Amino acid sequence: MRRYGIILLILIATFWGCSERENPSEPTISTGRFILGFVSGGLQGGSMTEEATGRHVYVYEPTEYTSPEYWFTYTESTYYDTVEQESVTVRIDSTLVRDSVSYEMPTLYLLHGFNGNHSYYKDLFILKETLDEMISNGEIVPMVVVTPDCDNAFGGSFYVNSPVDDSLGISFAGNFEDFIVDSLISYITFNFNVDTASSKRGISGHSMGGYGALTLAMKHPDLYSSVSSMSAPVTFDSLVVLFDSIYAENGFDPDSLPDDTTWFYSIEPSPDRPLTSLIFAMGAAFSPHASSNPDTSLFHRVIDTNFPFGVDLPFNIDGSLNDSLWENLWLPNDPLTMLETGGYTALEGKPVYLDCGDSDDLIPNMHLQNRVFAQALENYNLDYEYIEYSGYPGVDADHITFVADRLREVLKFHSQAFSE
Length: 420
Known about the structure:
Elements: E1 3-6, E2 33-39, E3 55-61, E4 70-81, E5 86-98, E6 107-111, H1 120-124, H2 127-136, E7 144-148, H3 176-191, E8 201-205, H4 208-219, E9 226-230, H5 243-249, H6 274-286, E10 299-301, E11 310-312, H7 323-330, H8 335-346, E12 352-357, H9 366-379, E13 384-389, H10 403-419
Parallel strand pairs: 1-13, 6-7, 6-8, 8-9, 9-12, 12-13
Antiparallel strand pairs: 2-3, 3-7, 4-5, 10-11
Helix pairs in contact: 2-10, 4-8
């Protein structure tokens, strides 16, 4: 079943001025809770940027949740003690075992956006209150929701394994894909009362998190049965239009660049240069500069060391696209390219949900790239729903404003998938 919709969320301000009327009794809202967990050593393999290997994670437990019980099992061995002249039994190989419980819950892994962490949905988008209300009202099934910290030195990992430096033998900015699909799932399935079947596991995210949800679902088809993204960058072609803006953020006129090329290598990320910071984070994820590579024409240093330590960005000094870097290192990580080069098979038989505001301001015309991705899902006859929404007078449907509202639709989408 394929569903494509463009809806207008025209919320007329006068709706808030309606006359008072009697309302039916409101249902009692049951209160779940957030547990702050810590995945010790979850980010394995080390990194050149010295990312923290232990990672925090918030786990939402609904009222209906029942904690599992644990005990130790032992292997016993008997031998004859020649000194005491008697048989002795000892316990060896102790193992911590988790008890199975009668109701194991489905799990939604909810990935944060750029410059976020495990608190992203809890602090910015009232996740707990939304879950409490929707579960209590019967709008969604009780579920465990997991929000991990995948921040790094660049503001975001893009949920990939940053390439390993060929000389140093370690990842440049961390193995975050392995963290999500291995360490985190193992931690959650052992420590929480969740159903371990992939049919009861979904993945979602906003912005960079939506990117991660889609790409991880395509890379690991055996792990997730439903996938959704909110306002995610799903086609990299739209990034090309950012190059001039990146120059402008760094104080250079794209139409009148200095003859001295030193300006090009002075481009650097900072909090007041959001697009520059975004492109550097993607460079750390997809194209860090190999310390053994003598070609530094695209190299931008990020740490002052005695060897080239930084990223290669996919544009030349004149602002044109560097085709070789783009095609070999960036496009293989592009969701649309992944979909069209075999990723569609990983999504067969699984529901997919996308949405985007028609005034999203992260990347120009981001709603148009989501339309393109939705059309590709249509072309492969996949089960998808795409919602493109508008705001109301004075309030645009930008990258952030309506995320709390869209989160409700995402929760309903995954609840339906868990129920099938």
